[in-house]
Each structure stands twice: as structure tokens, then as C-alpha cells.
Specification:
- There is one protein chain.
- With 634 residues, the protein is α/β, with parallel strands linked by helices.
- The protein is built from 19 helices and ten strands.
- Strands 6-7-8-3-9-10 form a six-stranded mixed β-sheet, sandwiched between helices. It has a four-stranded antiparallel β-sheet with strand order 2-1-4-5, covered by helices on one side.
- The longest helix has 53 residues.
- It is elongated.
- Bound molecules: adenosine-5'-triphosphate.
- Adenosine-5'-triphosphate binds next to α11.
- One of its GO terms (molecular function) is ATP binding.
- Keywords: ATP-binding, Membrane, Nucleotide-binding, Transmembrane, Transmembrane helix.
- It is a multi-pass membrane protein.
- This is ATP-binding cassette subfamily B protein/ATP-binding cassette subfamily C protein.
Length: 634
């Protein structure tokens, strides 16, 4: 089906075409053009991938599920052929008791085959049920192993983010569905094969009738699944925006600002636009699915009638005896049921396989974004000199660099300050120095060794970053400070005292055990400044970190706490190196070197005295701040 046809038939009204073009609705349309041939071609690789995954999750359960279904198929053939013998004996001439007696061995065979088939299917079903959670866990673990290792820049990439949401929300649950339906497809295929073999044994001419009886329902089922997937794909970005809007309207954190800025009508309006689009697409798909189902049902009725007419003709022409015709009706019904189930499960497999395909594709693309480990990883020693030379960095999708041609030097034990106006590139530079982003041009060297030569985790153990937009971890105070490192009570107390977090802890009824999330029973929330003290304590706790980067650590602190913290930061620098980003220029006077950024480049550098002497951008900003305290109140 060509895309333009689908577009013309969509019911999204023209007056919303502006909305259709919004960024959250962009999607990869390749998969939407999939044809029935595509489905058939895709299935073998899908089945192979699903079985590989199942095998990795549990070889024993996979083997039992497959072997159980295959063996059950053999007993289906036995049962059907034996039924023909039973019918032949029962329909023969003679007294009823004699006929039943003659049919008894075949009857027992039918009963035994049915019983064994049931037992085998039950065993296979139990193995299958055990397999499901194991596969889901494996898929989820793999996903999170990748999402926590990919380069940070991937999270600034809209396509990557969209693909991750699809993989996480649909791909992971559908991985288990794919494994489940793959085994169901094997079951269905074995059932069809068993019926076909039984029909072939009864009379070869009967075999094609099976196909005629089940193809229309299969066609309808495949088409309906594809329509559903198209809707999902068209709406994936819109749905993400809807979730975001619903969080803004129903979560605690933005609730105050929604009211303070009277955002209600704006948010509801945005929500209505996305919801309208979603509704239109869903109605469009529902209409097309209903039409497809009606067509499929009609064709199935016609095909079944045709099969019975052919059987009648064969019987009347003496091609097959009555007992074979009776067993054939049974085999065709069994086969028809198996084939319909097979096509339906193939359908579900294809549908879930698309999401599973998203999952596999995402894992593949995420693997490519995991920074390659260096061939011979160097161990970053406590450094003497960290240098950035001529570095240029552009965020993914940005049209101009956030940093260009920047060079800085950070010596051991120094306090280096990065200052500059909003958006000048301070945070970006700090993240590059921390090895969180890689520059596209230029180099960053740790004692002369390029940062790329270090194992990422080993490097990050040497660097502690207190981000401007630090996360408010929904954990206890202790966990918030220790953050997965070995717990040492003395170090915890020292870090808390250095950051002024000890005062925060003292006020909490549970002290270090207080849970910092009001969404949970007994949880607490902190003020912005209190959270900032906890975040700073986290930085101080990492005493293995040779370099500590503080990105605006005092923006939410009161004047006294701010002064005390800067004193402690200076004191701490004796054995560590501090990179400090701040707008409070009074606090950077004692820095060993100040870099002034402007539009992504270093505009000035030097000590406070040198920069004041220069009377440039820094001196202007400094005097502006200082004069604010001396201006008479109008
Ligand atoms: N994740 C991102 N994706 C794209 N552009 C970004 C991203 N983060 C920052 N930028 C852009 O890069 C430039 C530098 O931003 P950066 O956060 O480094 O500035 P800053 O000097 O730290 O600003 P502030 O004083 O406001 O914290 C800005 O133009 C900003 O819009």
C-alpha cells in the first residue's frame, strides 16, 4: 500500500494539518508501507530472533515448549487417521455390537492419542508460562544496561529518545509476546501440518481444500494487525507529548506553577489538540478495521461452503468413501482451526514483532552509541594537569556550536572559576572536562593522556560533578549522599558538615534515614537550598575524586550558607581540584584562575586582579554586581 493512498484516506481534518506537521508527530514511515510479502519475509528472522532470545533466557523451557508441541502434532495425525478407521468400522454392514467391537482398537488408539496430545500440550504450556517472565526480564535488563551506558549526547537526540520510549514501553513487553506467539505459531503450524498429513494419508486430493478454507480469515487478521500498528506508529510521538502534558497537569511538582501562571487553559488547549489528533487516527483505524473484518468473515463463509460442495462432489463421484469423507470433515475442521489460529498468531507475532523489531533496532543503535572501550585502557591517576585544547562542541541537532575553539588549563589543587552570562557555555565546558561529552574538535588531556584513552567509569570515579540541575533522587538522605559508594559513617558526617547538609539532617525526624519523596508514605520534601546542600555533600563524599566540578552550587543558598560553602570549597581545594561555575562574582575573587566565557568562546582569563585591571567583560559584570549593593534605594 502506497503512503499517499493511506494519507488521502485518513480522516484527520485539513484544518489540523498545521498540527500534523508538529515536531512530536514526526515518525519513520518505512514500516508503514509493509506489504503481506514483507510480513512473510520477516517472519523467519523474527522467529529465529525470538527463539534465540528464549534460548538465552532458559534453554530447558524453550526445548520443552518446542518438543512438546512437535510431539503433540504427531499424536494429532495418529488420532485423525485412527478416526477414519473407527468410522470405517462403524459404517460397515453388520450387527451394531460387532461393528463397535471391531472399531474398539481404533477407538482406544484415538483416546490414547488425544490423551497423550493433551498431556504434551499441557507440559509445553507450563514451560511456555515459565519462559515469559524470564524473557521479559532479560529484555528489560539488556535495555537498561544499554540506556545507562550510551554516550550522554544520545539523550539530547530526539530520534534516539523516541526510539527508546518505543523500545521500553512496547518493545520490552512485546519481546515476551513474540516468544509466546512464536511457540504458538509452531503449535499452529504443527497442527496444520498434522491435519494436512492426515488428509494426505486419507486422500491426496483433499489437501488443497484446507488452504481454501482458511485463507480469507488469515488475510483479514494480517491486515487488521497492520492497521493497528500504523495507528500506534503515527501516534507514538503525540502520545509522548500527551503523557508529558498529563504529568504537567496532574503531578505535584508543577502544580503550584500551573496555578501561579494560570497555565490551565493553555495546557488543556494543548492537550485537546493532541487528544483530537489521537481520536481522529483511532476512529479512522477502527473504521478501516471493521470493514476489513466484515470482508474477511464474508469470504470465509463463501470458502467453507465451497469446500463442502467439493467434498460432496468427490463423495458422489465415488472418489472417496463415506468414512474417509467423515474423517476428512474432521481433519479439515481441525486444520481450519489450527490454520486460523496459526494465521492469527502469525499476525500477533508480526504485530508484536514490529515492536520487538523496534526493540532490537534500538538495542542495535544504542550499542553503536556506547563509547568504545579504549584498546589499552589507561588508569587515570590523581592528575597534575587537565588541559582542554581548542575544543569545539555542538549539541546533536543544534545549528551552531555551544563551544568553539576553547582552551583551558586546570592544575592540581587549583580553584578554577568559569563565569559568563547565561548560555555562554559554562555548563557545557564543565561536562566536557568531566568526560560526559566528547568534543567534535580539539582534545582534552588528563596528564597528557586523551580522555578517550580512559575507561569511562574509571575516569568518572576520579571526577565528581554537582550538576546545576542535579537530580532529586527519591531515596533516603543517606542514599542521596552516598549514592551507591561504600558507606563510611565518618566520611558521611564530614561531607554533610562541609556542605551544611548536617543542619538539614538534624531537622528531619528520621535523620539520614528520611525518605526524600513526598509521593511515598512518610516521605519528606526539602527546600531548593536544602536539596542543594545534599547535592554538594554528595560531591564532598566522593573523596576518591581528584576533580570536583560545582555547577552553581550556591544558586539556592542563603547568604550565610553561600559564604560558608565557598570557604569550605576553598579549604577543600588543598588536596583536590575544583572547577566552580557561578554567577556570584564576589565568590570567585579567590580563584586561582577565572575563565570568562562569551558566546561559546573564552573572552578573558586571569586572576581577579588581572581581569579587573583589564577592565573588560569581567570587570563590567563585577562592577555591575558590586554597585547593586551601593545604589541608594529610590
Ligand atoms: N542539551 C542541549 N541541547 C542543545 N543545546 C543545548 C543543550 N544544553 C545547552 N544547550 C545550548 O548550549 C549553549 C550553552 O549552554 P550552557 O548550558 O553550557 O550555558 P551556561 O553558560 O551554563 O548557561 P547558564 O548560565 O544559563 O547556566 C546554549 O545556547 C544552550 O541553549
Amino acid at each position: 500500500m502506497r503512503l499517499w493512498r493511506r494519507r488521502r484516506r485518513t480522516s484527520v481534518p485539513d484544518d489540523r494539518s498545521g498540527l500534523v506537521a508538529q515536531y512530536w508527530e514526526s515518525h519513520d514511515e518505512h514500516l508503514l508501507t509493509a506489504t503481506l510479502g514483507t510480513i512473510a519475509r520477516r517472519l523467519p528472522s523474527l522467529v529465529a530472533a525470538a527463539l534465540r532470545m528464549a534460548w538465552q533466557a532458559s534453554p530447558r523451557d524453550t526445548a520443552v515448549a518446542l518438543a512438546g508441541n512437535l510431539a503433540a502434532g504427531v499424536f494429532t495425525v495418529f488420532g485423525l487417521v485412527a478416526t477414519s478407521d473407527v468410522l470405517a468400522s462403524l459404517l460397515a454392514a453388520g450387527p451394531t455390537l460387532d461393528r463397535v467391537w471391531t472399531a474398539l482398537p481404533s477407538l482406544l488408539l484415538v483416546a490414547a492419542a488425544t490423551g497423550l496430545r493433551g498431556a504434551l500440550l499441557a507440559g509445553a504450556g507450563w514451560a511456555q508460562a515459565r519462559l515469559k517472565p524470564l524473557v521479559e526480564r532479560l529484555a528489560e535488563t539488556r535495555l537498561f544496561e544499554l540506556t545507562t551506558r550510551v554516550e550522554l549526547a544520545a539523550f539530547d537526540d530526539h530520534d534516539f529518545h523516541n526510539a527508546m520510549r518505543r523500545a521500553r514501553d512496547s518493545g520490552v513487553p512485546d519481546t515476551a509476546t513474540v516468544v509466546e506467539t512464536t511457540i504458538a505459531v509452531v503449535t499452529g503450524a504443527v497442527g496444520v501440518l498434522a491435519s494436512a498429513v492426515a488428509l494426505g494419508l486419507l486422500h491426496p486430493i483433499l489437501m488443497p481444500l484446507l488452504l481454501v478454507a482458511a485463507v480469507p480469515a488469515g488475510w483479514a487478521a494480517v491486515r487488521m494487525a497492520r492497521l493497528g500498528y500504523q495507528a500506534f506508529y503515527r501516534l507514538s510521538a503525540a502520545r509522548r507529548r500527551k503523557f508529558m502534558l498529563s504529568d504537567l497537569m496532574a503531578e505535584r511538582q508543577p502544580a503550584a506553577e500551573v496555578r501561579a501562571f494560570t497555565l490551565r487553559d493553555f495546557l488543556l488547549g494543548q492537550y485537546a489538540k493532541v487528544a483530537d489528533l489521537e481520536q481522529d487516527v483511532q476512529l479512522d483505524v477502527a473504521r478501516r478495521r471493521a470493514a476489513t473484518k466484515a470482508g474477511g468473515d464474508l469470504l470465509t463463509g463463501v470458502a467453507t461452503a465451497g469446500v463442502y460442495v467439493v467434498l460432496g462432489v468427490l463423495l458422489a463421484g465415488g472418489v472417496i468413501p463415506l468414512s474417509v469423507a467423515g474423517a476428512a470433515v474432521l481433519a479439515i475442521r481441525t486444520g481450519q482451526m489450527s490454520l486460523t489460529a496459526l494465521i492469527q498468531t502469525m499476525n500477533r507475532l508480526y504485530e508484536a514483532g514490529l515492536y520487538f523489531g523496534d526493540y532490537l533496532a534500538f538495542c542495535e543503535s544504542a550499542r553503536e552509541r556506547v563509547p568504545p572501550p579504549p584498546a589499552t585502557p589507561a588508569e587515570p591517576a590523581p592528575f597534575r594537569l587537565l588541559t582542554a585544547e581548542n575544543i569545539t562542541f555542538t549539541y546533536p541537532g543544534a545549528d551552531r556550536p555551544a563551544l568553539s575553539g576553547v582552551s583551558v588549563t586546570v592544575g592540581r589543587g587549583e580553584v578554577i572559576a568559569l563565569v559568563g552570562e547565561n548560555g555562554s557555555g559554562k555548563t557545557t565546558l564543565a561536562k566536557l572536562l568531566a568526560g560526559l561529552y566528547r568534543p567534535q574538535e580539539g582534545t582534552i588531556r588528563w596528564d597528557g593522556v586523551d580522555l578517550g584513552a580512559f575507561d569511562g567509569d574509571a575516569l568518572r570515579r576520579r571526577i565528581s560533578v554537582i550538576a546545576q540541575d542535579h537530580t532529586r533522587w527519591p531515596l533516603t538522605v543517606r542514599e542521596n549522599i552516598v549514592m551507591g559508594h561504600p558507606l563510611e559513617e565518618d566520611r558521611l558526617a564530614a561531607a554533610s558538615a562541609a556542605a551544611g547538609a548536617d543542619e538539614v539532617v538534624a531537622r528531619l525526624p528520621d535523620g539520614y534515614d528520611a525518605l526524600l519523596d513526598r509521593r511515598f508514605r512518610g516521605g519528606h520534601d526539602l527546600s531548593g537550598g536544602q536539596w542543594q546542600r545534599i547535592a554538594v555533600a554528595r560531591g564532598f563524599y566522593r573523596d576518591d575524586a581528584a576533580l570536583v566540578i560545582f555547577d552553581e552550587p550556591t544558586s539556592a543558598l542563603d547568604a550565610r550558607a553561600e559564604h560558608a560553602l565557598f570557604e569550605r570549597i576553598r579549604g577543600h581545594a588543598a588536596d583536590r581540584t575544583i572547577v566552580l561555575i557561578t554567577h556570584r562574582l564576589a565568590s570567585v575573587r579567590y580563584a586561582d584562575r577565572i575563565y570568562v566565557l562569551d558566546g561559546g568562546a573564552i573572552a578573558e582569563q586571569g586572576t581577579h586582579a588581572e581581569l579587573m585591571e583589564r577592565d573588560g567583560l569581567y570587570a563590567g559584570l563585577y562592577e555591575l554586581q558590586a554597585s547593586a549593593y551601593h545604589q541608594p534605594v529610590p
